[in-house]
Design goal:
Blueprint (H helix, E strand, L loop, with lengths): L1 H47 L6 E6 L4 E2 L8 E7 L5 E7 L8 E7 L5 E8 L31 H20 L10 H12 L12 E4 L9 E4 L4
Antiparallel strand pairs: 1-2, 1-3, 3-4, 4-5, 5-6, 7-8
Length: about 230
């Protein structure tokens, strides 16, 4: 009977020791696991903002988490860099030619300028070129120096429209200020609206400018599609 009792005590002691060891291991490893999970989550953010210290989640569609309003369906997540470097927005759009998701990440300064771009998924059959996303760096919300890619208008339009949505959510929530468009940019952007037959089905204007000889006219445009 005594041997049986001793055996039970030994087993109980082993269980207690095992549980204690597991508790200590979990206590020591939990911060490491948490840090690794955070690093994995923040990897696409660090790709466009490698000098970042940490990030605060402002919006995350997967977690149903948001402190923002006026968020379009192209916005996957919005983060604020905690040391004051700016914002990172994750985007996904199906407005391209194949309607498969084009996904990319944008970094913004506090002044409302794109500082970096990372294209993470591009399933389109027509390539708009590896340099096209980089052409957005330095742009504010006016995107004055950004154009579409001839022959790849669906995909480049999808990229530009999603970028515009990223600007809009930051502006609507008073995180950045809107850029100012010049008169020439406003005019050319309005052409497809006021002269629809001048534009392609994707809304790209097809025209050439011609010289006007009177002081009462500002500019003249001729449609290239017999419009």
């Amino acid at each position: 009977m005594e041997n049986k009792s001793n055996g039970i005590l030994k087993i109980s002691a082993l269980l207690v020791v095992s549980i204690a060891i597991m508790f200590v291991v979990n206590l020591l490893c939990a911060p490491i696991i948490e840090k690794n999970n955070a690093s994995s989550k923040f990897e696409p953010l660090l790709q466009v903002m490698p000098e970042a210290k940490d990030f605060e989640v402002l919006y995350d569609v997967a977690e149903g988490q948001s402190t923002l309003t006026d968020v379009s369906d192209k916005i996957v997540a919005v983060y604020k860099e905690t040391s004051g470097l700016g914002y990172v927005v994750l985007l996904s759009t199906t407005e391209g030619f194949t309607h498969d998701p084009i996904t990319f990440t944008l970094a913004f300064s506090n002044e409302g300028v794109i500082t970096n771009v990372a294209l993470t998924s591009y399933p389109e059959s027509r390539d708009f070129g590896k340099d096209y996303p980089a052409s957005y760096i330095g742009s504010d919300s006016a995107m004055a120096n950004v154009s579409l890619v001839a022959g790849v208008t669906y995909s480049s339009s999808a990229f530009k429209n999603a970028t515009s949505d990223a600007f809009n959510v930051l502006i609507a929530n008073d995180l950045i200020k809107a850029g100012q468009k010049g008169a020439d940019q406003i005019l050319t952007e309005l052409l497809p609206t006021v002269f629809g037959s001048m534009a392609t089905p994707t809304g790209v204007s097809q025209y050439e400018e011609f010289e006007v000889s009177t002081s009462t006219l500002y500019k003249g445009f001729k449609a290239l599609n017999d419009g």
